[in-house]
Specification:
Strand 1 and strand 2 form a beta hairpin. It is globular and about 60 Å long. It has a single domain, classed as Farnesyl Diphosphate Synthase, CATH 1.10.600.10. It is built from 16 helices and two strands. Helix 8 packs across helix 9. It has about 325 residues and is mainly α. Strands 1-2 form a two-stranded antiparallel sheet.
């Protein structure tokens, strides 16, 4: 993820701590197997673990207390994965991280119920946070969780609409994706007892880089290599999601975009991608992601971290925008 050996060493240490804590937490409950088996399966599919690592990094650079951020990190990762399990059901997605989704492998009922249990597990993990931080962490966790649900509903609503504005899209991805990244940083700071100004600045950094992250994610769905991304190319197009690429393509050539609805699925995917490229939207999307990264760096400056902390989060922002998966 990072080129610096010092950053790599920190990440390796936090990842080791987090993985050990996650295994210990998951092993507390194994029966009934048809409930906990799908949870174990999904949590072991891997993923980037960006949010818990961000949480622990924030705890470390704010107060040298990465370990105290572990309960919040667990809660955030459990909540994130709960949302993915249910998102896959709503999207009827066959693959997640290159493997069968939970509802495909275990059935729809198990997908719904195991997802519900993961949400409860998130609250249980948060109970172990430092006492001084629990009230604010619980308040902010619940606010963020509600916003993520609102963002998901807006995303689904947009699928049924003929047009969506760019501000509407940015509001949706802020809720669906960015606020959880922001809370990950905020939660680490709160767990370590950082000043509210620092926690709020890191939250804004996370939200802005989260918007950049989602725009790059939309780009990867359209233009990424399936062996690197781990899911089918053009999934958003098949689901008729109103991504920034789709919105801008409609603005550029409404007639051509509407005509695509008459095509069969795979033909529609290829024709839509061709239209994206025709109007240079692949490049423009990357430029937009870069714009939001710049805003994130402005917020990071307001957190007044050490040079080490600033360098770490700058490298993290670079990774999110430059990644190929």
């Amino acid at each position: 993820m990072f080129s610096s050996s010092q950053h790599q060493a920190l990440l390796a240490d936090w990842q080791k701590q987090f993985n050990q804590a996650l295994e210990q937490f998951l092993n507390q409950s194994k029966e009934p197997a048809r409930l906990y088996g799908p949870i174990q399966y999904f949590m072991h599919l891997g993923g980037k673990r960006l949010r818990p690592l961000l949480c622990m990094a924030s705890g470390h650079f704010c107060s040298q207390k990465a370990k105290e951020a572990l309960p919040a990190a667990l809660a955030i990762e459990l909540f994130h994965n709960f949302s993915l399990v249910h998102d896959d059901i709503m999207d009827q997605a066959p693959l997640r991280r290159g493997q069968e989704t939970v509802h495909i492998k275990f059935g729809l009922a198990s997908g719904i119920l195991s997802g519900d249990r993961m949400l409860v597990q998130a609250w249980q993990a948060l109970e172990k946070a430092p006492n001084h931080a629990i009230p604010m962490l619980l308040h902010r966790f619940n606010t963020t969780a509600a916003e993520v649900c609102e963002g998901q509903q807006l995303d689904m609503d947009f699928e049924q609409r003929k047009s969506v504005s760019t501000p509407e899209y940015e509001h949706m991805i802020r809720l669906k994706t960015a606020v959880l990244l922001g809370f990950s940083l905020e939660a680490g700071a709160l767990s370590g007892g950082a000043a509210s100004q620092t926690a709020q600045a890191l939250y804004r950094f996370g939200v802005d880089i989260g918007i950049a992250f989602q725009i790059k994610d939309d780009w990867l769905d359209a233009f990424g290599a399936i062996q690197e991304v781990g899911k089918q190319t053009g999934g958003d197009i098949l689901a008729r999601k109103k991504t920034w690429l789709w919105i801008k393509a409609l603005e550029c050539d409404q007639k051509a975009m509407l005509a695509l609805d008459e095509l069969a699925d795979q033909e529609r995917v290829q024709a839509t991608l061709a239209l994206f490229r025709k109007h240079a939207l692949d490049q423009k999307a990357l430029e937009l992601a870069g714009h939001w990264k710049e805003k994130a760096m402005e917020a990071l400056g307001e957190a007044r971290l050490s040079k080490e902390g600033n360098d770490f989060f700058k490298a993290f922002a670079d990774f999110l925008v430059d990644r190929n998966y």
